[in-house]
Write a structure and sequence with these properties.
This protein has 504 residues and is of the alpha/beta class. The chain folds into three domains: 234 residues, 3-Layer(aba) Sandwich (Rossmann fold), CATH 3.40.50.300; 175 residues, Rossmann fold (3-Layer(aba) Sandwich), CATH 3.40.50.300; 68 residues, no CATH class. The chain is built from 18 helices and 23 strands. The strands form five sheets. A seven-stranded mixed sheet has the order 16-19-20-13-21-22-23, with helices on both faces. Helix 4 packs across helix 5 and helix 15 packs parallel to helix 16. It is globular and about 70 Å long.
Length: 504
Amino acid sequence: MKIEMRDIDKSFGGNKVLDKAQFHIGDGEIQALVGENGAGKSTLMKILTGVYSRDGGQVFVDGREVHYTHPHQAAADGIVFIYQELNVMYDLTVEENMFMGREIVGRFGVLDKAAMAQRCEAALADLGVSIPVRAPMNTLSVGQQQMIEIAKALMWDVKVLIMDEPTAALTPKETKRLFEVARRLREKGVSIVYISHRLEEIFELCDTVSVLRDGKFIAEQPIGETNMNDIVKMMIGRDIGERYPQRESKLGEVVLEVKDLTKEGLFKDVSFSVRAGEVLGVSGLMGAGRTEIMHSIFGDIPADSGEIFVAGKRVRIRSPRQAKRLGIGYITEDRKTEGLMLEQNIRINVSLTNYGKISKNSVIDFPAEKKLAQRAVEELLIRCSGTEQMCENLSGGNQQKVVFAKWSLMDPRVLILDEPTRGVDVGAKKEIYSIINKLAESGVAVIMVSSELPEILGMSDRVMVVHEGVVQGFLANLCGDETCQAEATQENIMILATGGQLHE
């Protein structure tokens, strides 16, 4: 199927999101669609699939002009959009999700569950995955849910599949499987629009790349005729320089020490320390227990045994409130449900962890509150109309900066970062890395959990690798710690993350 979008315009409330945007994809092609947060990528695809109406421009499918007003119309023509936020009914089974609104009905209006189960099993088998079709969706991993969404699309003769950040929450193994599926679909003539901030992936998977910036079409190029620096420059309109800003590591005393921390079924005998001014990277496969360990340190998950020391003093942390009082901050991996009150403005969100600075006798000093929020906007370069702007109307990168502001302005001793750049574009990533470096340079002990190995290697002084709830080893990176087992490389991290041992 060939699709062409010409001169597409779209505005929301006077804000022009797309300005004469162009897009083209041919038969059996995997095309990357890239741009910063807010560049208009998802909006353009939602116009293609009938989620949004366009203000101007034309859409052609196999040379025929179309005006879809509902995604079902696009799906009937074989164009399916798998969103970043998966369209999943968690309390229903795999089978029920895959046939939602398209159930097979037998005689007398009774559901033909056997036929539906058979179709589901065949669709999943085509993708090379084995998932029980009667399993509730809430028992499956995000990677399995992603595969189910793809299988659901393929059951209806898909010709163009649009995937928005499909690997954001996948393990390396699941990502590899997804790529295998994508290549197999391409061989069958299916075209794929691949929206991703992970530029390394598009060079591995895609045939061509289209770039949007500020709602405008910038370029379409074969992937073999460009490079990462060129794409980044087209995306942000300037040369970004080094992806990971340099930092001179000046390590101080141990600020946080964890000894033999154990929670049955989640992690066991976890021991590590982190020093003032250090960035300790925490790596491991999805489900290894990294986040659970951090939640335990922060008081969300009570450990069964073990000890925690802050500045040399043994402490018992039974709640996030206690952790905060001890100077421990936590930027969670899900900013939309745990990190921010999206329906509130920047000022209120920044205040949430800083009432001690802006109130007296439980009464908020509103000028002080406004001044603190303005400081956040200026110091973290939050792009907004002002401190009263609602967080739901900010780009992903700027939302993440508000989360950083909440905790960094608290002046923490220890700051835990869980996937700090997930869903953030390359330009905003660079700015967030600079924020992390400034925090470390000011003496904050930073613990950074990340699934992106280049990020771990680019930002960490040391790397702690977790496998199935156990600390498998430590690797030296920027600081050259002689107590580590070996040098931090992608290969060494993956050996430890998969349960292997490093040989002298």
